[in-house]
Hints:
One of its GO terms (molecular function) is transmembrane transporter activity. The chain is mostly helical. The protein has a single domain, classed as MFS general substrate transporter like domains (Growth Hormone, Chain: A, Up-down Bundle), CATH 1.20.1250.20.
Amino acid sequence: xxxxxxxxxxxxxxxxxxxxxxxxxxxxxxxxxxxxxxxxxxxxxxxxxxxxxxxxxxxxxxxxxxxxxxxxxxxxxxxxxxxxxxxxxxxxxxxxxxxxxxxxxxxxxxxxxxxxxxxxxxxxxxxxxxxxxxxxxxxxxxxxxxxxxxxxxxxxxxxxxxxxxxxxxxxxxxxxxxxxxxxxxxxxxxxxxxxxxxxxxxxxxxxxxxxxxxxxxxxxxxxxxxxxxxxxxxxxxxxxxxxxxxxxxxxxxxxxxxxxxxxxxxxxxxxxxxxxxxxxxxxxxxxxxxxxxxxxxxxxxxxxxxxxxxxxxxxxxxxxxxxxxxxxxxxxxxxxxxxxxxxxxxxxxxxxxxxxxxxxxxxxxxxxxxxxxxxxxxxxxxxxxxxxxxxxxxxxxxxxxxxxxxxxxxxxxxxxxxxxxxxxxxxxxxxxxxxxxxxxxxxxxxxxxxxxxxxxxxxxxxxxxxxxxxxxxxxxxxxxxxxxxx
Length: 486
């Protein structure tokens, strides 16, 4: 760890010593570096999160294969099994990202996934609903640091206006998990009776085993911090730092104290980010957990329902990638969030008035609902990252957003009650309301950031440049030279 800090410090000191004469970046070297990072950083994190998310949501596939009946689950027992995952998940995300700053990402991230694979397999051997709930709590505990850790790690390799495409590519792992999960569930369910396991038990055991194997392999290939990457030359490591700090070099926060942490926790932007993520997360999780149930109640058999999830998530993936490309190209976030909310609103409105609609129309409504929400999710996270300056603030802020924002997972776990089947009016209405709460928080963030940029352009924040040097070094995005992406 000491060697890593010395190397990182030496790169920064070297940059300072060269001054403005070293400010021009060779575009050919930059493109080569970005290609190398795209190959070495994102794909493996993507694959592991496919499996992590799959182990989290495959309970929805297991449900329609007879799990509730075999475990004697009644009433809201299924909802309880969903929500208990989020309690440790929410509480531990911030500490996890602060710890990660001082750890080796390959060991930390692959280790968590290895344990999660074991726990996923354990769900296939539970005999009571109480055992299922206990394993879900442990799954939330050990998975809490993976998602924010991956986003934190990626943010150290890319510039702010490059991140959304990579975040969306990473987040599309949830689309793949939703689509591929249905296919895997269809395949594993066909093993019913083999080895004394039922269809739903095979779903947990088979998918958990895949996670374990991939986590072991990933240990050797997950990207470390840039200054530790053996696949980067010294010049490329230096270039990563320069690119990452381009335009925001003064926006540092590379040490942490209780006072600085308190300032981070009081930042209004972070709580807008929490509200955005919580609002859209309610839809994201609830649909992942309940889409197989909706399809089953539309009249599809369990096998047909598993397969019909695939097109839903595939279309969502394509739209998300296109919107991410467009958003990065325009260097704009807010308008695309509102667009996604409007698309999802069409789906919600249709399902709130589904009494006399055909199965095909209701299925089409799910396309709108999922596509809009899954387009918004990565933008809310990337916009938050774009709005934070400094190593620690970025890590802590993203963990705050994802951790507390996952309260939306608790909400999404409880809004679809079995007693309201098959209309689920409360669930669809609550999901729509939370989605527009996301839009409300995004609107506050947009106008707040625009106002702050104008103040800085007018020199109204330059008084902060008179602060002692040690104070200026921990201003993060409060530094007057920092500008926000809208």
